[in-house]
Design a protein that fits this description.
CATH architecture: Roll
Strand content: 35-45%
CATH superfamily: Hotdog Thioesterase
CATH class: Alpha Beta
CATH topology: Thiol Ester Dehydrase, Chain A
Number of helices: 3
Radius of gyration: 15 Å
Number of strands: 8
Shape: globular
């Protein structure tokens, strides 16, 4: 990540999300709270490229899943959830050097499921649309 990109994210109020495992390899992931709603960011680095030199679709899917899952956790107040279903539609290509943004929207919550949608944008372009269902798990 370039110093310029880092400085821009920090000056716009983004904070790094503490991650581990696979997500740590994908990130850093960023978040900020705007008027009580969380937004998420991922700066596309060279490690995210596919054979065409664009952002790999799996990175976009992982980012959408994580953004929706974190929103589901905040809304439910429950620490343990699992993705039951995630549908992703790729609309445009993300480019290395761009910052991807997800602004998840909770559609409905039940006692055991949370339904969420998000668009993943880069600049002023929608690059993917995702819709997910997350199951609230019983505490261990």
């Amino acid at each position: 990540m370039t110093k310029t990109a880092l400085a821009k994210l920090e000056s716009d109020g983004w904070e790094i999300v503490d991650t581990s495992g696979f997500l740590h390899l994908v990130g850093p992931l960023w978040q900020r709270n705007v008027d009580g709603t969380y937004e998420y960011a991922l700066h596309a680095e060279d490690k995210h490229h596919n054979r065409r030199g664009l952002v790999q679709g799996g990175v976009i899917m992982t980012f959408a899943d994580r953004a929706c899952g974190m929103s589901a956790r905040y809304v439910s107040g429950k620490p343990h959830l699992a993705t039951v279903q995630l549908d992703v539609h790729f609309v445009d290509a993300g480019r290395i050097g761009e910052t991807l943004i997800a602004r998840p929207h909770v559609v409905r919550t039940t006692k055991s499921l949370i339904f969420i949608t998000t668009e993943v944008t880069a600049e002023d372009r929608v690059i993917a649309m995702a819709s997910g269902v997350f199951k609230i798990l019983k505490s261990a």
